[in-house]
Amino acid sequence: EGLGTVAVGVRVADCVPILVADEASGSIAAIHAGWRGVTRGVIAAALDRLRGRDHRPGEGEGERLVAAIGPCIGACCFEVGRDVGEEIARAAAEARVIGSERGEKVYVDLRAAVRAQLVAGGVSDGRIDDVPGCTKHEAARFHSFRRDGAHSGRMLAAIATRPRRA
């Protein structure tokens, strides 16, 4: 007889939804990562919490964790000030996240920044799935706050534990 499942989710409109599971412990996390969360360490904090307080990094750990990056605003549409772009790049261990530049504005690949932080946090790159698409310019598929403002809907990304046996 199963002991049930637990599910967690996150609602987004342009920010990055990230789902992570530790296959060894069965722990799961849903992370909401906008540019501020990326620069303030929300991904590392969530991974630390997922692993528990007594976590000691070990060999093969990256093979325990699996992650999914959901739909978000793409590098084609995520325009920010140069200062914000550089802050995101620093937070992503200088990964190539800044694309085209227009004066003091730059286009940033938030998805690449998130991937870099997941890898830095111990998730093997090959165990990160990515849902492609840009929330801002794909109106038929996604909600976008940057496109629709306060009238925008939200998308839900969710993850659930596997049923455990008694």
Task: Describe the fold and architecture.
This protein is α+β, with helices and mostly antiparallel strands and 166 residues long. It has helices at residues 35-39, 42-51, 82-91, 110-120, 145-148; strands spanning 7-12, 16-22, 28-33, 65-69, 79-81, 98-102, 105-108, 128-130, 155-160. The strands form three sheets. It has a four-stranded mixed beta sheet with strand order 3-2-4-8. The protein has a three-stranded antiparallel beta sheet with strand order 5-7-6, covered by helices on one side.
- The helix/strand series, from N terminus to C terminus, equals EEEHHEEHEEHEHE
Mean pLDDT level: 89
Task: Please outline the major beta sheet.
Answer: 4 strands, mixed
Major β-sheet strand ordering:
3-2-4-8
Residue fraction in strands: 25-35%
Shape label: globular
Structural class by sheet pairing and helices: alpha+beta
Keywords, separated by commas or semicolons:
166 residues, alpha+beta, 27% strand
In terms of topology, how is this protein built?
Elements: E1 7-12, E2 16-22, E3 28-33, H1 35-39, H2 42-51, E4 65-69, E5 79-81, H3 82-91, E6 98-102, E7 105-108, H4 110-120, E8 128-130, H5 145-148, E9 155-160
Parallel strand pairs: 4-8
Antiparallel strand pairs: 1-9, 2-3, 2-4, 5-7, 6-7
Please give a quick description of this structure.
The protein contains 5 helices and 9 strands, in the order βββααββαββαβαβ. The chain is of the alpha+beta class and 166 residues long.
